[in-house]
Amino acid sequence: MKHMALLVPPDVHPGFGLAGIRAQQCSPAELLQSVRELMQDERVGAIAVEERLLDHTNREALPFLEKNWSGLLIVLPAPDIGEVAREDYAMQLINKAIGYHVRLGG
Q: Is the pTM of this model over 0.85?
């Protein structure tokens, strides 16, 4: 049975481990070599690359590597680092109690 390999930056590697997902950490400079090595592994049927690992060279080279491989190569979008909107505790309780979001205004 084939499995998926995940290539992620070092800063998110521990998070994948906490979720029980086996991922391989990699830097942008190591990406192409890591992808080539995984493509040689007969057990790997899909490779997912975190978007932040892509630089100009990697972005152009990955499609050429994929053409000579029978597996699937995908790019995972980078996490959104934007500011998270926080609801107040009362609004969270109301949403939980009635089952959907309500906008209270005056």
A: no
